[in-house]
Amino acid sequence: MKILAIDTSCDDTCVALLKIKNRKLEILNNIVSSQVKLHAKYGGVYPSLAKREHQKNLPIIFKKALRPLKKKQFDLIGVTTGPGLEPCLWQGVNFAKDLAKNLGKPLIPVNHIEAHILANWLPDSTLHILHSRRLFPVVSLVVSGGHTQLILMTGIGEYKLVGETRDDAAGECFDKIAKILGLSYPGGPVIDAEATKYRSCLEGGRQIPKYRIKLPRPMIYQRNYDFSFSGLKTAVLYDFRSRSSKIRKSRWYIQEMASEAQQAIIDVLISKTVKVAKKFRSRTIILGGGVAASQELRNQLKSKCLTSDIRLLVPVKNLCTDNAAMVAATAYFHKKEAIQNWQKIKADANLKI
Ligand code: KG4
Ligand code: ZN
Fold first, then answer.
1. Is the CB–ligand 1 distance for residue 192 below 6 Å?
2. Chain segment 105-145, per-residue pLDDT in tens
């Protein structure tokens, strides 16, 4: 079976082709056309611009994605219907509907958050573990630019949201902090890079100026499983404003701030995730979403899981950020729900898992 999938939930136009044989998932093509350069000057995604780009890019990327096939010989179409930016989602949904109509193929609506979780079922991940009967219950932490959610999973398709951010998502917080510090968009990878430089200077014993920045770990001691990151961004802004313009531009200040902000976010994410795993006696944690590409988060969560006797599954980095291979995998697991009546499918910016 071959599945063609489309994701236009945010600022990446993504089309992928997945082959499934004997329950083995093989990515034939996974194309991501990034709009980062376009949105960088706004320090975030500009929805109407993103929508226009999706419209322009989709037919080109669709053609490219199909190159491994002789004809349009795929069996199913998967498309992200939400959550995401509504005008962007509609571009993918309408494109998929046209395909379903013109080619007479069944269409499967896919939830973007579920796709970030099921990215762990794609090749290069620890697939043998995923088929183990003792995998569930699993605690999934989905951390992206739009979401920070803790989801209890009792099987594929069986989810219960146990905690989420009350304001900004973790990725959004990285992006806003980067903007305050004058760093580029998206903020997560640049803050990761600045923080890494800072740590290697400290580890190398280099004498560097210290600003003794201390940021809060919002809600870390609260007994719920929710997050809040907007206060953290404000704390960064206050510290930044209290410094002289010379310090604000100094690489040591920027690096120390990046390192402290990253650590604050990681501390809260790890503490709450492990708390949920213990509460629900889960022996597996699954990580997904763009922020899961952070090497520091991966390293620190891995060592915490090792000491807590919890198994950790994380997708390879290019499957953490938005892509359509994860959408194709999700469509595969929901293939029985294929909708012949494609007219009914709608985009839903606030789709819940
Ligand atoms: O999942 P994703 O590609 O798109 C959404 O569904 O939102 O996530 C994008 C987010 C951005 O906020 C970006 O700053 C963050 O993921 N991100 C990272 C890293 N790479 C991307 N955050 C921390 N470290 C990274 N290496
Ligand atoms: Zn995403």
1. yes
2. 999 999 999 999 999 999 755 555 566 667 899 999 999 99
Ligand found nearest the CA of 10:
1
Instruction: Please report, for the domain that includes residue 86, its CATH number.
Output: 3.30.420.40
Residues 192 and 104 in one domain: no
Domain ranges, residue 238: 131-314
Do the bridges between strand 24-34 and strand 138-143 make them parallel or antiparallel, or are there none, so unpaired? unpaired
**Residue 43 near ligand 1, beta carbon < 6 Å:** no
Determine, yes or no, domain membership for 36: yes
Question: Would you list the DSSP string of 189-230?
Answer: HHHHHHHHHHHHHHHTT------------TTTTSSSS-B--H
Tens of pLDDT, residue by residue over 178-228, are: 999 999 999 999 999 999 999 999 999 989 999 999 999 999 999 999 999
Query: For residue 169, which atom of ligand 1 is closest to its CA?
Result: 12
